[in-house]
Amino acid sequence: MLPLNATITQIIEESPLIRTFFFDHKFEDMEPGQFVMVWVRGVDEVPMGLSRNNSITVQKVGEATSKLFELKEGDSFGLRGPFGKGFTLPAKGEKVLIIAGGVGAAPLSPYAEAASAAGAEVNTVLGARSEEHLLFEGRFEALGNAYVSTDDGSKGVKGFVTDVLKNLDVTSYDRIAVCGPEIMMASVFRFLEEREVLEKSEFSLHRYFKCGIGVCGACCIDSSGLRVCKDGPVFSGTQLTGSELGKYSRDASGRRVKI
Fold first, then answer.
1. How far is CA 141 from CA 32, 98, 188, in A?
2. Tally of structural domains, the chain
3. C or N: which end of the chain has fewer Cβ atoms within 10 Å?
4. 25 — pLDDT class (breaks 50, 70, 90)
5. Is residue 235 part of a domain?
6. What does the alpha-carbon distance between residue 143 and residue 232 come to, in Å, rounded to a whole number?
7. What 3-state DSSP class applies to 64?
8. Is the pTM of this model over 0.85?
């Protein structure tokens, strides 16, 4: 698939290190949780989750994202996709728990909105380093209960999302969707596993992609061999049992990199 040229129509600074880029194309058939390959000309092509059907929300962490932060309205980048498997939409009347950490709130926000539109009850646990780094808090609050945690205690519970989860009955939910830093997701995974609700959960993984369409195998996870770009990026909790989650990922050469 050749990249389409996406012109930036609006840029919103969500936090000191996170920006949302709106572009002049709508992926009407996107599944919440799917990703696009973003071609930053002259630098690299990197995967990013869609925060709406016409936006990506980007954290400045490396060369490609730093270059994106230099772009202005009217500039453009290339897009391929959407690709991969998104989150499973709930049935009407089901209870959904969203667990989002940092920029992981980006792919979970359209999922929360789609779940609410489907008639599900949506509750969210939203975590960040501090109040100024909370992402899309208003979008989640508009849909149902939103519980907040910050590392420094500047808003909500001081601590991590698992500190909020301790006060919730996670067994009462029909579906649990998780996305955030892998250390956070691994902690949530253990929490849900201990309470025997992994079969209700789905996790969105981030790995190094080359092709983005399941051909090259660069993003296969141990020990199942599942391809994050094709079989994921969203996996059920049971699929990730005994996997590399929270332990290591792989770099461009395939070497293990400790999480």
1. 18, 12, 21
2. 1
3. N
4. very high
5. no
6. 26
7. helix
8. yes
Query: What does 145-212 look like in DSSP terms, one character per residue?
Result: -EEEEETTSSSSEES-HHHHHTTS-GGG-SEEEEES-HHHHHHHHHHHHHTT-GGGEEEE-----SSS
Q: Helix, strand or coil for residue 56? A: strand
Query: Quick check: bond before 82 cis, omega within 30?
Result: yes
pLDDT digits (tens, 9 = 90+) for 146-168: 999 999 999 999 999 999 999 99
Give 100-111 pLDDT, tens digit per residue: 999 999 999 999
**Domain containing residue 39: CATH number:** 2.40.30.10
| Structural domain includes residue 124 | no
User: What domain range is 41 assigned to?
Assistant: 4-83
204, part of any domain: no
Give the number of other Cβ atoms within 10 Å of residue 253's Cβ. Answer: 7
**Least confident span in 177-181, 198-202, 244-248:** 244-248
Q: Going by C-beta distance under 8 Å and a sequence separation of 6 or more, which residues neighbour residue 132?
A: 15, 16, 154
Q: Is 208 exposed, middle or buried (0-12, 13-18, 19+ CB in 10 A)?
A: middle
Confirm whether residue 179 is marked as ligand binding: no
221 Ramachandran zone, left/alpha/beta (phi>0; psi -120 to 50): beta
Which residue, among 149, 35, 162, has the nearest Cα to 87 in the 3D structure? 35
Structure tokens at 7: 């012109």
Which of 45, 43, 68, 42 lies closest to 55, judged by CA?
68
What does the DSSP assignment read for 8-32? EEEEEEEETTEEEEEES---TTPPT
Q: Specify if 88 maps to a domain.
A: no
220 is in an annotated binding site: no
SS3 251: coil
